[in-house]
Amino acid sequence: MHKEPIILGIESSCDDTSAAILKGRKVLSNEIANQNIHSLYGGVVPEIASREHQKNIVPVVDIAIKKSGIKKSDIDAVAFTKGPGLMGSLLVGNSFAKSFAMGMQIPIISINHMKAHILAHFIDEGNKQPNFPFLCLTVSGGHTQIVQINSFNEMKIIGTTIDDAAGEAFDKSAKILKLEYPGGPLIDKYAKQGKKNAYKFGKPKVKNLDFSFSGLKTSILYKINNEVKKNPSFIEENIEDLCASIQYSIINILLEKLEKAIEQTQIKQIAIAGGVSANSYLRSRLQHLSDDKKYDIYIPKFEYCTDNAAMIAIAGYYKYIEKKFSNLDEISQASLKF
Ligand code: KG4
Ligand code: ZN
Fold it and tell me: 236 C-alpha vs ligand 1 centroid, how far in Å?
């Protein structure tokens, strides 16, 4: 009988150290150690992130293996994030994966983090999965892309941001509002009680399917500075309306281009991926869009939206079955292309 491969996935591109065990397309364990320390600095400090990964990687892998119920010797391959990401962070996952694979005499598989966010849709948890071709709005702290996916191996970016990523727009706006890093989830939380039309912010004019968020950030900054001059407690008194209005602006920018991409490609299978796809307002707007316009919408489970190693392992699975292994001289690449 054909044996389903058991893959250890390692993710360490930014500030989350994660390890997962997959058997075929099923997740046996998916452990994540967050680095809350960065909230003290208002953003990820690369040097600290790298050191924290070094501390966390061994225990996180150990727990992932224990929770999965398999033995270390059952693992058939190690998949790890090659890039894009912070170099010092990537190197920890890369070195660990190689050492583990050498020790166990199993192959390594290098994975593109952004492709892994998309392939997270194929983790088997009884959910419906997109059919090819489909479009994926990949929105994270570092990237904002509309990707056309024709097969597991053939993906092309048809729209991208010309400045900040959508997650950055959330986090930078949150910083202006004096919220802790990462601010995206906090804006989402406060927005639930706020009025989305309370404040209007500038709308970018960008050609084609590309995005821009830097103007929005400036418009938010000016508005807040003006109001705070008149009333020093302006932010605290209006935090919910501010969050709802900022979130509304960011999600509108995303959805406008996504709808344009659907119109241009005539592809009606739509997926979202990346940390910002955890946003509850984006999820509900997409759900309405699908009800109204008969699109098929695919939204990953919450834990597979933000950075996690299960997505690295599923991407590894698809390379494993095609025997696309890497050599031990595989290098990390901070700006790995798609
Ligand atoms: O994919 P991810 O975990 O890491 C990167 O590869 O960047 O994405 C992190 C980003 C952060 O900017 C964070 O603020 C944002 O995702 N994020 C959210 C939410 N949850 C995470 N943004 C808005 N609403 C959320 N609920
Ligand atoms: Zn990510």
Answer: 23
* Residues of the domain holding 310: 6-120+305-320
Please tell me whether residues 199 and 50 are part of one structural domain.
Answer: no
pTM, two decimal places: 0.93
- The response to whether residue 85 sits with its C-beta less than 6 Å from ligand 1 reads no
Say if residue 202's pLDDT is above 90.
no
Query: Where residue 186 sits, what CATH number does that domain have?
Result: 3.30.420.40
Q: Are residues 148 and 258 in the same domain?
A: yes
- Pairwise CA distance, residues 98 & 76, whole Å: 13
Q: Does residue 337 lie within any of the structural domains?
A: no
| Residues within 5 A (CB) of ion ligand 2 | 140, 307
Ligand 1: atom nearest CA of 189 is: 26
Confirm or reject: Cβ of 276 under 6 Å from ligand 1: yes
Mean pLDDT over the full length of the chain: 95
CA of 60 to the centre of ligand 2 (A): 18
Task: Mark whether 312 and 227 lie in a shared domain.
Answer: no
Give the mean pLDDT of 288-299: 89
Question: For the chain, what is the domain count?
Answer: 2
Which DSSP string corresponds to 118-170?
HHGGGS-SS---PPSSEEEEEE-SS-EEEEEESSSS-EEEEEEBSS--HHHHH
The number of beta carbons lying within 10 Å of the beta carbon of residue 283 is 17
